[in-house]
Amino acid sequence: MKFPLFLLILVSILLFTVSCTNSQKETAQNNATKEVTNSFKEIEKIYLSNIEKCINNLEATKKALNFIDKDIEYNKIHIQKSQEHYREARAYFKKIEPILSFVDVENYKTLNAPNLLKVEEEDATNIKINEPFGFQPLEELLFLEIDSIGNIEEEVIQTIQKNADKTLQRLRLIQRNTNLSVYKNYHFLWLFRDAIFRVALTGITGFDSPSGISLDDNKIVYQELENYLSFFEAEFQNKEIYQEWKESLQKSQRFLTQDDKTNFENFDRYSFIKNYTENQIEIWNKTVKDWKIEFPLELAIQNDATSLFSDSTFNLNFFSDQQLGQISKDKIVLGKQLFNDVNLSSNKKMSCATCHQQDLAFTDGKKFPKGQKRNSPTLMYAALQKSFFHDNRAGSLEGQIISVINNKTEFHTSAEILLEAVKENSVYVQKFSELYSDSLTEQNIRTAMADYIRSLAPFSSKFDKNIKGIENTFTKNEINGFNLFMGKAACATCHFAPVFNGTIAPSFRESEMELIAVPSKNDTINAKIDEDLGRYDVFQTEEKKYFFKTPTLRNISKTAPYMHNGVYETLEEVMDFYNRGGGKGIGIDLKYQTLPFESLNLSKQEINDIIAFLESLEDE
Fold first, then answer.
1. What is the pTM of this model?
2. Cβ distance 273 to 482 under 8 Å?
3. What are the tens digits of pLDDT across the range 61-106?
4. How far apart are CA 469 and CA 463, in angstroms?
5. pLDDT tens track for 124-171
6. How many helices (H) and strands (E) does the chain have?
7. Where is the Cytochrome c domain (predicted)?
8. Contact at 8 Å (CB) between 139 and 145?
9. CB neighbours of 550 closer than 8 A, spacing ≥ 6?
10. Which terminal residue of the chain has fewer beta carbons within 10 Å of its beta carbon, N or C?
């Protein structure tokens, strides 16, 4: 069969057109990739230059201390020089922070870790204990270990030198192993957003600045973000979005250092987050659409999150040790039925709701449930953490549930018996058949119950509505309470917004434990440490005695009594404990206390304002 000549010509033209179109698309994609690669190469030059300047200033920090002798006035000059060089080194570290914290998480954590012993417990046979080094220990030594006449002990100098050497060694390692050309434009947007969140959630709280220079630090971060963004200007199809970014970033810088009267204690963190951080999330989402970004996965915070304080902010899969399916309303209802079913326990008298009552924010109002040695923690926002129980012994909600099932003083049963108990209920059998592809299994029972708990994070409090701009009902006292909580009172250096628990923002990879030295009784005269050894009981690590997980403070007005042993009945008592400096302030002297020993020096009004803020965290 022969085709007419005109048909052959037409087919040839069409094939040529398609080929040209594909070639043009491929060329455009290649050009876009090259532009992004070139942008990262330019950023890499700045990044490496800043690392070098950081190294040089740390070297100068060390060198200035070599001149210390017995002449106090002479020493003061060189101590001051050492401090000045440290501040410069710190400034350059803050310049590299947005990149380093994203591309090299572990080295960033090491260099920016608090001056606390680092204990890593993989299992009973793999426990690592490391002395801290990096910028925070250096800052404490250089600024907080100077005596009243401005002198510094030889032992402190030696510690500074040793710490600085380790920090320099790590910085040089990072410098030798940097290659940013492999990153894509979506990586840039992720690290850009992370940097904004880090400023809001830890930066302005003083989390990583023992001497209180965090406002200057965060201005530097914003300056560097503005600089980085300039290399991606060509990515913007809508140039107005780029201009919107520049304006917002510059306003943030000005707000961080408004005038000479702005200092760490009086900084308005509420207005900063409400007017700048939340607005920048909106601009970021516009940028994602403008750049036509397709993210390959979700991090802790959803790629399309519109606020830090929303029930759609977090990616629940990130906090789970298994891939979650679609959490439907029907699965949540089923999970709730199981949660409240006493027939799942061996004596047919106990359900999850026995110790976790909905009207008390899923606590029970008691110091201890019957037969237990620890206070029942709230299950509200329990899904938004990486470890479970007061001692962090479980790594997932499902793991927590199986512990309750097996516990002789709780359900006192087993997964196998639990499965048989559920099978006896025809309604359950039908529901599992409808909702799960593999029907009724022991794993699906735990998943259904866990999914119900995952639904208990509504972010519907008065605080949430106000900081998102939905309402304008926040009082002056509540605003001041939030600012104190995030600043002077140092609450937010352990209870991280937006969940106000111990899961460290903005990566949310780790749920912290603290040793605050809780007393056995509410006694400030003859206080004694509570006998519960906390985390120590898991692996018998001496350095982890009396450590407990940092819980969420959301709905705290409903969850009395407080602490793992229920020792305090009121928030006023809790605040008094912290205001005194924790256990140390009432005479309990423990080597590894993580809470600062010094009094917070909060006035009665300031304490009342913090409590007013805490009460505003009650969900509808």
1. 0.92
2. no
3. 999 988 777 677 777 888 889 999 999 999 999 999 999 999 999 9
4. 10
5. 888 999 999 999 999 999 987 776 556 778 888 899 999 999 999 999
6. 22, 4
7. 330-433, 476-618
8. no
9. 494, 495, 501, 502, 511, 512, 513, 514
10. N
